[in-house]
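Ligand: adenosine-5'-diphosphate. Inputs:
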Amino acid sequence: MITRLTLVNFKAFRRLGLPLGPLTLLTGLNSSGKSSVLQALALLRQSVDNGAQGLLLNGELVELGSARDVLHDDFGPADDLSDVDDPAVGFLVDAGKPFRFVGFYDPEEPDEDVMRMWVGGGTRPFDAAPFQYLHADRITPAVTYPRSRQVAIDRGFLGVRGEHTINFLRHFGEREVPDGPLRHPGASSPQLRDQTVAWMQELCPGVNLQADAIEGTEFVRLSYGFGGTAGINATRRRRPTNVGFGLTYALPIVVACLTATPGSLILLENPEAHLHPKGQSRMAALICAAAATGAQMVVETHSDHVLNGVRVAVKQGALQPEHAVVHFFRGNGSGTEVISPSIDKDGMLAQWPEGFFDEWENSLDQLLD
Ligand SMILES: Nc1ncnc2c1ncn2[C@@H]1O[C@H](COP(=O)(O)OP(=O)(O)O)[C@@H](O)[C@H]1O
Ligand SMILES: [Mg+2]
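Predicted complex:
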């Protein structure tokens, strides 16, 4: 597990040291650097996947532009990461031991999208262990989804928009969710297909889903059933385009969590998107269950229901308090400061900084005024 990530000269950060836990919530104002943390991890993964030949700024996981785009505007020396004085972006990854990655900026080639990279200590945190990264912008209801054997089946990757989730479910639907916190007690079996349905029913009671190949094409189809018409024998299946948006949007998050294994690294942006408040807190419970299973979850969220869902999971003993790490990003005029309120065993936060999920109270004050 990665216990600390330090970014040097990367995008919004001159320097940022961030402790990470089994579950890390990144919260805070817009454009304060939350996604940059996920992007840094994905960038390293993408570069290592590509043979660690260089820092690969544009690829399957992230498209960050050129060296000029990622180098912090007011960059300074990365001297504790490399003894070379050239301008550079640097990443220090603590995972049992330090792993260093430095991407050198070549002033002659500012528009290059591969930066010369130096790696110190190896690449282990980004080697083959299961990895998912779901962007804020995910699949929407569609008539068909791609069917790629290489991505969904050989690599088990859901796609950054979750676009391979349907094919993944079709192929691995009978795989069992191991006994433990992820297994939904109300599901009709431990199989991934039924477990996914059970968790989706937390969002929409009575819903059922099915993933099928469309023979003779490179596409798969998702269909939903509701209440009495649900199940294999359902006569009335509905195509996703005729079903609420939020269900399809949440499906990749549910599958990413249910397939989490010890050693997985799972990066999620806005798992709450398009879900009703109770659905958001149930998503938090599922994310906590994935973390309790031994996966490392790093989650960007704007949802107080996700935050509170995590607090409740801690209070109920589903996740140890020190395993839930919360960071609040906010601008302080000259950059971003990060405040990290700890959660105690009762789910209470040690501090409540101004601007940190306090809008409910602000509005209430005005209403009662
Ligand atoms: N090269 C750079 N130098 C300085 N700041 C940058 C650079 N690239 C991006 N930023 C800043 O990073 C912020 C965007 O970060 P991002 O991680 O997308 O935020 P969030 O996810 O919190 O909305 C913006 O404030 C932008 O100005
Ligand atoms: Mg963001």
